[in-house]
Amino acid sequence: MERNSEKYQAYVRILKNELVPALGCTEPIAIAFAAAKAGETLGYVPDHVTVKVSGSIIKNVKSVIVPNTNRLKGIPAAVVAGIVAGHSEKELEVLTNINENDRQKMMEYLNNLKIDVEHIELGHVFDIIITEYYGDSYATVRIVDNHTNVCLVEKDGEILFKKEIPDTDDSENISRDYSLLTMEDIWDFINTFDINDLKDLFERQIQYNNAISEEGLLGNYGSNIGSVLLRTYGNDVKTRAKAKAAAGSDARMNGCELPVIINSGSGNQGITCSVPVLEYAKELHSGKEKLYRALALSNLTSIHEKTGIGTLSAYCGAVSAGAGAGAGIAYLCGGNFDAISSTIVNALAIVSGIICDGAKASCAAKISASVDAGILGYQMYLNGQDFKGGDGIVTGDIESTIKNIGRLGHDGMKSTNDEIIRLMI
Length: 425
Hints:
The protein is α+β, with helices and mostly antiparallel strands. Helices cover 57% and strands 10% of the residues.
């Protein structure tokens, strides 16, 4: 692919847009970001806050620990953390550099602040509207479709910032860049891109996501899926690939204060796309350049699959990321385009039934299963055993299968998502 071509430049922009740092689970962090921005706009410490959020936000905030809060969970904790100690200019790292004095203030403020939470459905699965009041003054911030997409800032009736909000959610408003994604072009790109264009980006992903995975194995986080896998199945590369990715998720879901590099708005997906690929690269002594190309393949594959599904869904995002990791691993093992395509299709056929019932400890086990499916998908190809077009949602080519996944996750699982939310709240 030519470096000055539209597609090349689009793919570089996509990776730089998606692979950004975040501290903590991204949905509560988005709430903290909105709360911090509203507080800065208001200019006072509010005495009353209203939080209106879509069901998928409630689902993904309910059970996860907000970092730097002494293990607090839920929407009120995220709101208070953002108001007391958040810095909105840091976006998804809004809760960094918080000290013990800040945490004490949070606890005191949480016990005294009136917070009203309301479930809304205004046509967007990702929707946060926070209004903070001090006496007769108020400030409102609204975020729609992705974690830092501020669409409204208002104070005391004056619109300070406003962006047009589409009538439908993000998967139906795909930008030009994302519409250019195809597996054939991704394959062309990852084999030809100039390493210097993305080296720093991938080095940061390697550093951040490996660090939190190591911490997950060393500490006591969540259900400790990584440690369970290693104790049960040994220390071969396949087990390590699953265990380290799971450990990173367990740490992230359960209060670890290390940042991650996300993918498709998700730290779990960012970990799943990168850590298993890194483990195989170490095992195979692949070298940095081949590792960077494998990471480009894994990340872009996951983004391509997720584009049709949308930011939040009842379809577990680890499935897309696990298939991406399988593709990256297949590439490191010498796989050609046919091997990559078969790996992805096989992986999707195996685990596309995994639901997303919010961010919490069990995400780590789902990541393990999804990475396992990616690895098995490649082993199936090596043994001449692939799922064929007509086998369930699998069709005759990879692009049609990915489109089916998008329809399944976005359209087919809407009612499933609604039912999950009802069960949870």
